[in-house]
Write a structure and sequence with these properties.
There is one protein chain. By secondary structure, this protein is an alpha/beta fold. It has a single domain, classed as Alpha-Beta Barrel (TIM Barrel). It is 31% helix and 20% strand. It has 9 helices and 10 strands. An 8-stranded mixed beta sheet has the order 2-3-5-6-7-8-9-10. Helix 2 packs across helix 3. The longest helix has 18 residues.
């Protein structure tokens, strides 16, 4: 049985914690979180670059930060990870990253130890879950990366994957936007993949309250005119841009 590779919290331990979901359709719900390490994309504005931008990784990031792999990754067996989640006492689990679906094998093993918990997975939409993971998922939060992320469309917007999630009623789409032009790109994807508008969120990019609020002013108008939903980043207002929150 393979180990899970997790991100670390500020103490160097695995980033497994209880909090309120800060984004998307489950915003405000009390949940347990587990943050897995590694990602197949590299967003220039990523706020969890410590899950992938390790020393020697030359993929661009606006902060230019590099992280020591040994200090920012930790391995746990699926049974150990499940035990740490169970002790938090929550009835819903959010699996995030990084890109968590890069670790489907040990993820399925972990979920086998948590048969009664609801499961929410946050994914960039470039990978499909294995059957053993998919059968346990109650909700997908799919966040395809737009041009301003710095990823090429060939890597970030894979038609077969977008079709897969758009056709699944468990999947909600959450697009990170930094300026109104980004929404034009969302419009194109919504039409091409027939994403139901009631399952489509626009969320401002930002890691501080002022940036989020400033962008929500014009974003709210666009959501109203287009029929999209708007997501805040509630955890940023409550805790700032910090780990394990």
């Amino acid at each position: 049985m393979a180990d899970l590779i997790l991100a670390t919290d500020d103490s160097g331990g695995p980033e497994i914690f209880a909090s309120l979901q800060g984004e998307g359709p489950s915003i405000g719900k009390p949940v347990a979180f587990i943050r897995l390490s590694r990602c197949n994309l590299a967003c220039t504005w990523c706020d969890t670059a410590y899950t992938w931008r390790f020393e020697g990784d030359n993929r661009p990031h606006r902060d230019g930060a590099e992280y020591e792999r040994k200090a920012n990754q930790v391995k746990l067996s699926p049974e150990e990870a499940a035990a740490k989640i169970a002790v938090l006492g929550q009835n819903r689990l959010v699996i995030t990253g990084g890109e968590p679906l890069m670790q489907c094998g040990p993820l399925a093993d972990m979920l086998a130890y948590l048969p009664d918990i609801e499961v929410e997975i946050e994914t960039n939409g470039t990978t499909r879950p294995s059957a053993h993971v998919d059968i346990r998922v109650d909700q997908y939060n799919v966040s395809p990366k737009l041009t301003h992320s710095g990823n090429t469309s060939e890597l970030a917007l894979i038609p077969e994957r977008l079709d897969f999630y758009a056709s699944d009623p468990r999947a909600f789409f959450k697009f990170v936007v930094a300026n109104p032009d980004d929404v034009v790109e969302v419009d194109t994807l919504q039409r091409e993949y027939r994403i139901a508008k009631e399952r489509l969120f626009l969320m401002p990019e930002g890691t501080d309250s002022k940036t989020l609020r400033d962008r929500q002013v014009w974003l709210s108008t666009l959501c109203l005119s287009k029929g999209y939903r708007m997501s805040d980043r509630m955890h940023i207002h409550l805790y700032g841009d910090t780990r394990a929150t």
